[in-house]
Each structure stands twice: as C-alpha cells, then as structure tokens.
Amino acid sequence: MTTLSRRALLSATGAVSLTAILAACADTGADGQAVSGGGDADYDTVINSGPVAAADVVAASSWASAIKEAGVLKTGGTKTAAVFSSEDATTGKVTGFDAAIAQTLARYIIGGDDARALLDITQVTSDTRETTLENGSVQAVIATYSITPERAQKIDYAGPYYSSGQAVLVRDDEDKITGVGDLAGVKVAVQSGSSSVTALNKAAPEAQQVPFDDQPACLNGLKTKQVDAYVVDYTLLLSALQSNEGLKIVGDPFTEDPYGIGLPHKSDAKAFVDTFLQTIYDDGTWASIWKATIGAVAGGDAPEPPAIGSVPGSENDAASAPAGQDDSGAGDSSSAEASASPAA
C-alpha cells in the first residue's frame, strides 16, 4: 500500500523548485545530443528539437493547414497544473508534460525555433472541454483528457499519448483512509464532469461524492474539511503535492486512464495528430518530454507510450472519418498527422 506525502516527494526530488526539477532532468535533446545546463533552456531545447512536418503533409490536412496559416495552435488546457501545464507567474511561460506535447505539435505544424510562441492556451475545465471544440474556439484539447466512448460520440480523440490512473488524496492527519476501499460513507471531492465520477461509482459506490468545478476548489474543500478525500488522476495529485502542505496520497491507483488529444469531430485532424504522436514516439521526443516533466517528479525511466488507437474511443473508425479520407493514420501524406486544472 503506497502513501506519498509532500515531504516525501520533496525529499525524493531534493526539495528544489519545480522549475529547477524540470531543468535538471532535461539533459538531452530530442535528437539525442547533450543539452547544456541552464535552467529553463533545457525544457525549451526539448520542445524545439522535435520533428517538423513536410509542407505537403501539412497541406494535405485542412485542419493543419488552417493552423499553419494562422501561425498559432489554439488549445484548451490549463495553466495551473504543475507537472502537466503550469504558468510561471514571473515569465508567463507555460511548462509541463501536456504543455510540451502541445508546443511540440504546434511546431510540428508551423515550424520555427520557438515552440512556446506558437501555442495559445484557453483555460478549460472538465465541463467545458467538449464545448470549446464543438464551438470552434480551440482546435485541440490537451488537458489530461481521458478517452471514453461516450465523449468520442461528440469529438475525435488522437492517441492515447499517456496512461495514468485514479488515486486518493487525504489530509496528513488522516489514518482511517488508506485507499479507495475505505471511502464508503466518506465525503469525497471530485471534479464535476470528470471520469473520477464514474470511477468512484464503480470502485466505491457508497462514497458521498461532492462535485467541485476544478482542482483548486477540490483541494480547498479537502483542506477546509468540507470533504475528507479527493479522487483524481494520480499524476495530478503528484502536481498537487508540489505546492500544498498537509496532504498525502494513499493507496495505489485503482483505474487505468488513457489520455487523448481532443479534436473536432469528423474532421481530418485525428489522422494527422495520430501520425504526429507516432513520430514523436519513434524518434525519442516523447521520452525526452516525459523525462523533463513527469519523470522529474516520479523518477525512473520513461515508460513505453501507449499504443495509438488501443482503447475504446480512440480507434480509427472509418464511419467517423470524412468522405474520401484514409483514416489509417499512416501510410501516405494525406493522413499525417488549461486558472483551473481539468481532471481526467
């Protein structure tokens, strides 16, 4: 049974700032060449060393072509989730695993030497992710966005590009809750509209779910004793421990949650982005991003990324592809390629 507190996390990472942690672990670029030390520049080298799509590959996708013409990729995401997508209050730079995936995708489409400048993040919550895609205010959602068949009825998913799982956060002085098996009758914070709701219904049906809008609200509810536990993705809880005293993760993750990139439904975006993901898997860019972000906190070697199209809702479905499009996600140029923290 795993218990992880902020003190243990900071001890494991040397009690240095997240920015320093990210920089320290990003010691090689995506091309495999050594990257010199120097703080934030190491992360920048990772996101600026990834692949850039050929002009004819971009031109073959109407979705990618519109982004290249505009010179910016508009995504739904967050700016307050340490490890995944967090904005530096001083510099305004957004850093993290999801942020890096988005920045690398933007550069893959548009090109250039400054991936950060190519990304425009609109804050989303668990309740607004589909809406922003459906109304066209963003071109993709990259926000710890769990793939589900139900959501795939409204949007398309590229990926999955990462897999995590739901876990339980409690206050440090809590000794009766050691995992999801102890949540019967307990008031548990969940993000409204997130996959945590369904996961808890299955794993702890007698838990008293209390919905909040976003992660900061859930954490506040736990700290002020409105609730006695908070359930969300394990890696989001790791990010919470970075900046919150008096909390600990108990037990092990009790689900598997594959994250996907949300895209406009029945567009030609999915095949293009799936090919982008496979490209950064194959050339080592994905592993470099992981090491510079999640790996800086979790430690160890980069895992194997999940197989694209491997979970329900992410399959290449000919019925959902535009007429005349090869939805294989590979094989020819026509199919190449969030102040709240949304939950999975």
From TrEMBL:
Gene3D superfamilies referenced in this protein's UniProt entry, alphabetically: Periplasmic binding protein-like II
Record flagged with keyword Cell division: no
Source taxon at top rank: Bacteria
PROSITE patterns named in the record: PROKAR_LIPOPROTEIN (PS51257), TAT (PS51318)
Pfam family, one: SBP_bac_3
InterPro entries, alphabetized: Bact_solute-bind_prot3, Solute-binding_3/MltF_N, TAT_signal
Biological process terms in GO annotation: amino acid transport
GO cellular component terms, semicolon-separated: extracellular region; outer membrane-bounded periplasmic space
Cleavable signal peptide: 1-26
Family the entry assigns: Belongs to the bacterial solute-binding protein 3 family.
Record-given protein name: ABC transporter, substrate-binding protein, family 3
Species annotation: Actinomyces massiliensis F0489
